[in-house]
Amino acid sequence: MSDTEAARASLCATKAKYSAEREKRLRSDGTDQYRDLTGLFEDFDRDPYADPDFQRDPVTCDTEVAIIGGGLGGLLAAARLAQRGITDVRVIDKAGDFGGTWYWNRYPGAACDIESYIYMPMLEETGYIPTEKYAKAPEIFAHCQRIAKQFGLYDKALFQTLVQEVRWQDDAGRWEVSTNRGDKLRARFLIIAGGILHKAKLPGIPGVETFKGKSFHTSRWDYDYTGGSPTEPMAKLADKRVALIGTGATSVQAMPRVAEMAEHLFVVQRTPSTVGVRANRPTDPAWATSLQPGWQTERMENFTRIVAGQEAGADLVDDGFSRIFGHNPKALQISTEEEELIDLAAMEAVRARIQSIVTDPATAEALKPWYNQMCKRPCFHDDYLPAFNRPNVTLVDTGGKGVERITEDALVVDGVSYPVDCIIYGSGFETGTGYKSRLGFEIYGRGGVSMTDAWAGGPATLHGMLARGFPNLMIFDQLQGGVAINFAHLMTELANHASWLIAQCIEQGIEEFEPTAEAQEAWFHTLLGKIGAQAMFFAQCTPGYFNAEGRMDPSAIRQIPYFGPLLDFVQILRDWRADGTLEGVETHSTQEATAR
Ligand code: NDP
Question: So what family is this one in (predicted)?
């Protein structure tokens, strides 16, 4: 057999294995398999970091811009508005501070998995240089606070505040934002930057509510129970048998830290992640001082180009992510045999790395992932695989089926009971569900029509941001919008766009704007034109949140994002702004509004 024939035979066998592994994991309940943190599970959603006794008087006020969400999207929007001199702004968040995901995710080992020099926004504006290539969560959280302080956002923030509904007032031409603290904010413009992965979910394992030991979700880490902190050892785990459910990006980071301290750790796996080399390192001061103005945007764009398979010249970030696409620019849309063979070689390397690090052969075998590399978000970590060699760590592989049952004091997998004191759910966040469900409140637009009703047939937007019937509203999400491996890059661009639009309205006396139905339909056709190979790629992938648990529903076609390269999407927004006519948008000026 020639080398080519051997490679083809290996590819054929591997594809059959990928397919069989996918079949094992397909479930009829798809995304319905998860439980949200309400009712019985309400306590899982409690904020362990904020003052539980916090009280304040209700706020009733008029404001130019209300921003819902103080995570990267909301923070950047407020900062960009401040740079344009628009400071009559209010930011509302259920958390006790700015930071979004970096407020909530304080689990041990949390760090950015995208290089911090391109992930942490506004480094040039704040004059800050991260201490490491992959900064740890407390440093990123502190950077969010730095941005908020620099742009004077703290006295504009309403924290520990849950929005209950937002309602457009036809007569006043204002949004009214109502909250659980009795606030009534009347805003001319509304930005909803609720985050795409912010609503924690639990697996719907039978008996999950019966467990009498301690349990919590990774995004609500209970250091009172574990002891320690994001940076200090969790001494109170020394006499605890702990189960960590899930092996996604979060658990890969948290697992080695729990393993260091727990009496015993059971890592419960449904689908293994790919875990490549992290090679984190301190920032080189000489490199930092050599940076020229404009360096961060250049570096962000360089990375985004590379991971979209576009020509970018030198690979400035040069890490695991950029190398995947450097070797296989079409890693997200494999369609030729050549691309398949490159992906196979990359996955063979991932599997060989496991084999070379994990000493127990059965554990090593079970940790091997069988799918195309980009089917799940790739992970990079240098302590995760070695931690399986510790005597106090057991991999509980569920053969793709998940935990069978939870009892008062144990979890059961394949008929075997594992008694534990504590269950930590690294089970991820709601995505791909309805917009209202993820947001947690309803949006009522013109004539009191809810977004749920207006979008009953699927979302309709211009650029994924503006929606007809919902004047002066700007949504930061991935529905019909751009998708990014570096989420901070996408948020930076959306914040630029929304702040420009608001500034234009103020400058030109535009009181109300909303897209035309024709522009929304044309945008949807642009999205359809970009579906191509990427959607096909995900359709054949192992189930996960990238493909609605393997059940991509053709009736949800209107939820598709812009599948083309992010920088093409960004260019569409830039061209639209440069054109200056607000093409596809109906506007009402001050005079018309006054006459109403
Ligand atoms: P994921 O959704 O990626 O992982 C959830 C895990 O729970 C999966 O391993 C899943 O298995 C498992 N699971 C679900 N149900 C069961 C069950 N019934 N029994 C056993 N296991 C189960 O969530 P993460 O929180 O890990 O990551 C979410 C995202 O957050 C990442 O993909 C990444 O985008 C982001 N992130 C970003 C970071 C950054 O620095 N930018 C850092 C960390 C996370 P299965 O795979 O079979 O579904």
Answer: Belongs to the FAD-binding monooxygenase family.
